[in-house]
Prior knowledge:
By secondary structure, this protein is α+β, with helices and mostly antiparallel strands. It contains eight helices and five strands. It has a five-stranded antiparallel sheet with strand order 3-2-1-4-5. It is elongated and about 65 Å long.
Amino acid sequence: MAPRDHPTIDDVLGEFLAEQRERLSARTFRNYDEVVELLRHSLDGYAHNSLDGDERRRWEQAFESGDEGAFCHLFGPEKIPEHLGEFLGYFMVRKVIAGQELLRASGTVTAKLVTWLAARGYIDRDSADHATGCTQDASRDLPVADRLGGLLHDVAQRAPEIDIDALDDRDWVEDHLAISDVEPGRIWFEGDIGPIAVPRQASDLARPGWSVSVTAARTKDSWHLVEVGFVYP
């Protein structure tokens, strides 16, 4: 199908799925369909934050008139690559209850979408190359980060009873912190939080630079995880 002169995101995502339906098994296509639908939700819910000027006004007018899918209805596919980092690094982590298969598929499907968009001239090659790196990282890292989050949550569940209100301010932290160092069975967070004892499986998965929403407390010179939220690769 030849590209339209001014296709919208909605147009090209529909075209992409129609082509994939013809070549994929039913099970694989379900993953494609689900990931693309999640991408639509992410674009419509968050991508307007990058707009300004006339584009922002156009979106606000349509959205305030009741079009909840205004972003995908108004703007073209060139807006997709710049949003993939937020989609894969925030939306899929924070807003979606996803299993390992869907997390892996989110990177695979968006990589295929980027290649498809570039092949049809909907986006330029530089945008495609940059977005492809993002999608490849997501395919590898998102399932690992999800497993790490589960293991760290188990560590927090086994933490001793700690009265945080009785601790000095220097002995507890509640923040979104980057992992700063990893050794077998131990991890550290930025701000000299650690070492924290974790299973070897967790330390094998952890990567310096990944960030985690944590509450941690120190008692008798030992740091403990008290609560753990999402892990962001």
